[in-house]
Design goal:
Blueprint (H helix, E strand, L loop, with lengths): L1 H13 L11 E5 L2 E5 L6 E3 L4 H7 L6 E3 L11 H7 L5 E3 L5 H7 L3 E3 L7 H10 L2 E2 L12 H12 L2 H21 L8 E5 L4 E3 L4 H8 L18 E3 L12 E5 L5 H5 L8 H4 L3 E4 L1 H9 L5 H15 L9 H6 L8
Parallel strand pairs: 3-4, 3-6, 4-5, 6-7, 8-11, 11-12
Antiparallel strand pairs: 1-2, 8-9, 9-10
Helix pairs in contact: 1-7, 6-7, 11-12
Keywords: Ion transport, Iron, Iron transport, Lipoprotein, Signal, Transport
InterPro entries: ABC_transptr_periplasmic_BD, Bact_iron-sidero_bind
Family: Belongs to the bacterial solute-binding protein 8 family.
Length: 330
């Protein structure tokens, strides 16, 4: 985190945050139209459930943010708390509250991961320039680098945004080079609460793709729910029986996992290729922001190394702690 702060400070010395690195006005096109930003915004309302992480990585404390979930003040998780510092943004919950936002009088509203509707946008854009999701990515499918670049352009911090992207992409590349055995192997991230799998169109599935993993065959064909998240019937195992099966926390649903009727038949179970991520790492992967990606990598890479070493007797630490390890005979 100190390295991150140094990066923010050094970029600030090159271009003080009171002055824009890029000329204004700026125009950003999105699914509902174009946001015209006449000058560097000072008061930013973040409607994206993960967007405040991205703003904080750019050295910006939002005027207000939309809290997703978790026990932390302001909805800011451990990896971003230093960047928040003593900031006290207004916290918004649940559906987009147009009246509340109007009272804040922001000069920019951002919502790339917000589920913003066309009617929401029509009202919000009367309050301030508003950035909705891109048409190509849908409500919750935008890649982290695209979201960061958009915010860098909107706030005049493109240089810092590109520095973050270069740093993070460099780490992904180094991990891929260090683990050639992962390249082309299959991996899937599954929510333990309802056996719902994230495709590589989702931010969690895309995270695994950046490590070199492929989506298991047949996952896209399940067709239940939507293109980003597939609910897997309990009698179907093939779409999640991957070389690395990553269960993410849903309020510690270990008992449910241990009673899934066909889990014991899966190769991932028999060969010790399951990983259980706790609450913080689950949230870090689910945010996939410049602040949380390296936090996720620090936790996940050693677990992948243990699960993918070819020895079913190698214990995956988080799976042992959660109590989901299979009984593997010598």
């Amino acid at each position: 985190m100190r390295a991150l702060r140094s990066l923010i400070i050094s970029a600030g010395l090159l271009c003080p945050f009171g002055l824009s690195a890029e000329p204004f006005p700026v125009e950003i096109t999105h699914r509902y139209g174009t946001a015209h930003i006449p000058e560097e915004p000072k008061n930013i309302v973040s409607l994206s459930f993960i967007g405040h992480d991205f703003l904080l990585s750019l050295g910006i404390i939002p005027q207000a943010l939309r809290k997703w979930y978790g026990p932390h003040p302001y909805g800011v998780w451990p990896w971003a708390q230093e960047a928040l510092g003593d900031g006290t943004p207004v916290v918004m919950w649940g559906e987009i509250n147009i009246e509340q936002i109007a009272t804040l009088k922001p000069d920019l509203i951002v919502g790339q991961w917000s589920g913003m509707s066309a009617s929401d946008y029509a009202l919000l854009s009367q309050i301030a320039p508003t950035i909705a999701p891109q048409e190509d990515w849908g409500d919750y499918g935008a890649p982290w680098a695209d979201m960061l670049r958009t915010l860098g352009l909107a706030t005049g911090r493109q240089e810092l945004a590109e520095a973050h992207i270069s740093r993070i992409e460099g780490r992904f590349e180094a991990i891929r080079e260090a683990h050639p055995e992962w390249q082309g192997a299959s991996a899937v991230v599954v929510w333990s609460g309802s056996t719902g799998a994230y495709t590589q169109g989702d931010i969690r599935g895309r995270f695994m793709a950046e490590l070199g993993f492929q989506e298991p065959e047949g996952l896209e064909d399940i067709g239940i729910f939507d293109s980003l998240y597939k609910i897997i019937p309990e009698e179907v195992t093939a779409p999640i029986d991957a070389d690395a099966l990553i269960w993410i926390d849903a309020g510690n649903n270990v008992e449910r996992l241990n009673t899934l009727p066909l889990r014991h038949t899966m190769r991932a179970y028999k060969e010790g290729r399951e990983i259980y991520l706790g609450l913080d790492t689950t949230a870090a992967m689910s945010h996939s922001s410049p602040l949380s990606i390296e936090y996720t990598l620090d936790a996940l890479v050693p677990l992948l190394e243990a699960s993918m070493d070819g020895d079913p007797h190698t214990e995956v630490a988080t799976s042992r702690a959660a109590g989901i390890l299979p009984e593997i005979t010598p």
